[in-house]
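How a chain folds remains the central question behind the approach discussed here. In the encoding step, the backbone of a single protein was reduced to a row of integers, each denoting a local shape. We regard such an encoding as a compact summary of how the chain folds. The sequence in question and its structure tokens are set out directly beneath this paragraph:

___
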Amino acid sequence: MTDFDNLRTFAAAVRLGSFAAAARHLNLSPAMVGRRIQSLEERYHLKLIERSTRSQHLTDQGRAFLARAEAVLEAAEALAESGDGDGLSGRIRITAPVMFGITRLTSILADFDAKHPDVTLEVSLTNRRVDLIREGFDLAIRIGELPDSTLVARRLGTYRFVCCSSPDFIGQNGDLSHPSQLTRVRCLRHLDLVPRDRWPFIGPHGEKLVVEIGDGIEIDFDEAQRKLALAGAGVAYLPLDLVEQDLGEGNLVAMFPGWTMPSMPIHSVQPSTGFMPRRVRELVEAVAMNLRDHSRNVGLAEEGM
């Protein structure tokens, strides 16, 4: 086991970019990380990592050794899984966008945790697009089109948006039957949208329309926009997941029947290694199944899956 621990430590130090980051990830001291890597160097008579006070880099020997070490670790994990029967164990490090994590992912994780108590789920909710390999994540959930990369991606579902406002706001502003009328009413602008003063729509026959919206409060958090919309402060452009209950209870009203807002794909993204642990595969499948079931329940069809 000592050799495997040392190999895991070496791989983490390379992937995460420093002994300190590997120590945090593995719950070790930086000194222990150094001792484990030194033990490998002494055992195999190699210089694996060159370090200075400010940086580290792999030697040529280290690069060749890393490829073999990762192959050994993957093979060992595959063998361990083959003897686990139906049980899952180990750690999964996940990252996902904040709002998707709050509105959708938490219930999936709670169910997965109840079914697989020996799996440790470590979750980072952030709208920053993390570097999976450098930061040591096993899985990311990403919303939107993906750039070309060597990462392994799977389409899981569709992230939908809705244009909505409170019944009181609609009553105060008269007939609002077409998106073009948004130019004359208060609209809640999201600071992360570019441009923030134009909203896209798709018409009943597939026609596309971009509307320059009216002035209103500008804010950078979806939940705050939801609260402002409930308070009658204006029309909001929000994720459907966030306001689905409000729409069902009549506290918010979906506007412009027949018109929709462009949706975005939801993908799982994983490092492009040859071996994917069964615990990660099953979590990805749990997310995909939840999104499929939810779409069926609300009468929405998923495309491209």
